[in-house]
């Protein structure tokens, strides 16, 4: 069995952060029943041009492996039907603004009445209590409000919006909290409310910057720079808009990098005596000069003189393909890799071999690429995506017929009254 086999989730979440949480849990084996209606489908289900595709790509990434049913929660009978689903579920998850789910009659107290040990996940911008609980928010706001945006970007530029990474991080934190609540219920028999604040997730990622601020200091964004390492950053490589990331942590790594650069001539304007275009001669005119340069001898020296060091590294990287640079440096024990484009990542044989990029069958029978779960377990069946994005209401025969035992006539009556709609 998959780790969460037998766990059922009534999923009222919308957009991205909450759905990503239930998406992760579904890949671990939970049966996730996504609740929508034709009147109010998930906003991300609607086709829109994302990533160059006129289709719900944003929805696909968080809806695969889930089941889909229609319930009109604006109808009292729809709320009754939703409660029937909750009564046979272990977890109910929602991501509306605080107070909305309660006004629908599906708040935590309402659900406890039909399922005393229910675990309810509430994902929101600022949490279920506190003076800012009523604020709405989306991913860029979470990062901005939580301080992560202010610490991201170049020192002389504006803060950088944090988009999907923020939603997904909120979803991962939510999944961990839900698993903790499941373990507590296993030990005590008690359910509970799991309250996740997106802005608090963002603030938790600030780490030492937040601690420094609490101590009276004022950290600043540093772009690709590092507080101690040099060289550290993304450097231009050969070709249009090609880049390579390099991070040197120790003096030994620096000597290895300097030795490789020292096999080449670099232009004089880069900061080392040399002549002409960068090339690889039989006897380099300045072999060993960089490795022995006192400005870069120790980590503290390199960091203090990084304004002089970065142009030297850039002058070397700009003449070679990014993958070649990475291969040379990795072989010498220096952390480096080309800054890959998304097509390069999608085609990566390593990710495909591990199932991080996989193929799933959609309801139309076609097979499409999907982003798999980023973890592996040594025992049991393979976790991850086993089916594509469900069509709206695709699984109602199973959910309403098999799980709830409703007759065809009962379902038809609810469809005619637009409760199942």
Keywords:
formyl-coa transferase, domain 3, alpha/beta, 3-stranded antiparallel sheet, 6-stranded parallel sheet, Rossmann fold, single chain, 421 residues
Q: TL;DR of this structure?
A:
By secondary structure, the protein is α/β, with parallel strands linked by helices. It has helices at 17-27, 57-63, 76-87, 100-103, 108-114, 139-146, 164-188, 198-204, 208-214, 251-261, 299-304, 306-317, 322-331, 342-346, 349-354, 396-403, 408-416, and strands at residues 8-11, 31-36, 49-50, 53-54, 67-70, 91-94, 119-124, 192-197, 232-236, 243-247, 335-338, 357-361, 367-371.
Characterize the structure shown:
This protein has 421 residues and is an alpha/beta fold. The protein has 2 domains: 8-205 and 347-416, 3-Layer(aba) Sandwich (Rossmann fold); 232-236 and 243-338, formyl-coa transferase, domain 3 (2-Layer Sandwich), CATH 3.30.1540. 37% of the residues lie in helices and 14% in strands. It has 17 helices and 13 strands. The chain has helices spanning 17-27, 57-63, 76-87, 100-103, 108-114, 139-146, 164-188, 198-204, 208-214, 251-261, 299-304, 306-317, 322-331, 342-346, 349-354, 396-403, 408-416; strands at residues 8-11, 31-36, 49-50, 53-54, 67-70, 91-94, 119-124, 192-197, 232-236, 243-247, 335-338, 357-361, 367-371. A 6-stranded parallel beta sheet has the order 5-2-1-6-7-8, sandwiched between helices. It is elongated, with a radius of gyration of 27 Å. The two termini are 34 Å apart.
């Amino acid at each position: 069995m998959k780790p969460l086999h037998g766990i059922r989730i009534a999923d009222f979440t919308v957009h991205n952060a909450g759905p990503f949480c239930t998406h992760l849990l579904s890949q671990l084996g939970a049966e996730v029943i996504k609740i929508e209606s034709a009147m109010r489908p998930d906003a991300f289900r609607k086709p829109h041009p994302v990533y160059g595709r006129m289709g719900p790509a944003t929805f696909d990434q968080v809806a695969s492996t889930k089941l889909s049913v229609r319930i009109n929660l604006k109808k009292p009978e729809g709320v009754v039907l939703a409660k029937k689903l909750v009564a046979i579920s272990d977890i109910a998850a929602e991501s509306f603004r605080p107070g909305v789910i309660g006004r629908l009659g599906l708040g935590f107290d309402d659900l406890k009445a039909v399922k005393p040990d229910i675990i309810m996940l509430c994902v929101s911008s600022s949490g279920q209590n506190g003076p800012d609980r009523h604020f709405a928010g989306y991913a860029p706001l979470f990062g901005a409000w939580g301080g992560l945006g202010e610490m991201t970007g170049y020192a002389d530029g504006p803060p950088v919006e944090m988009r999907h990474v923020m939603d997904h991080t909120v979803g991962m934190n939510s999944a961990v909290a839900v698993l903790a609540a499941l373990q507590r219920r296993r030990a005590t028999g008690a359910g509970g409310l799991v309250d996740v604040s997106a802005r608090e997730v963002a603030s938790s990622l600030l780490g030492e910057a937040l601690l420094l601020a609490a101590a009276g200091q004022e950290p600043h964004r540093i772009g690709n720079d590092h507080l101690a390492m040099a060289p550290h950053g993304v450097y231009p490589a050969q070709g249009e808009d090609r880049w390579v990331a390099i991070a040197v942590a120790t003096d030994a790594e620096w000597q290895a990098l300097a030795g490789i650069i020292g096999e080449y001539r670099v232009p004089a304007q880069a900061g080392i005596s040399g002549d002409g275009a960068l090339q690889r001669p039989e006897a380099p005119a300045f072999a060993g000069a960089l490795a022995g340069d006192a400005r870069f001898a120790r980590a503290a020296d390199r960091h203090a003189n990084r304004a002089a060091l970065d142009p030297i590294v850039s002058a070397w990287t700009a003449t070679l393909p990014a993958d070649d640079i990475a291969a040379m440096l990795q072989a010498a024990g220096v952390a480096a890799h080309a800054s890959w484009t998304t097509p390069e990542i999608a085609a990566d044989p390593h990710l495909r071999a591990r199932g991080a990029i996989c193929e799933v069958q959609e309801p139309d029978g076609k097979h499409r690429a999907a982003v798999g779960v980023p973890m592996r377990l040594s025992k049991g069946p393979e976790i991850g995506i086993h089916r594509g994005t469900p069509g709206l209401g695709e699984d109602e025969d199973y959910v309403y017929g098999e799980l709830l035992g409703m007759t065809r006539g009962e379902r038809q009556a609810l469809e005619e009254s637009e409760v199942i709609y």
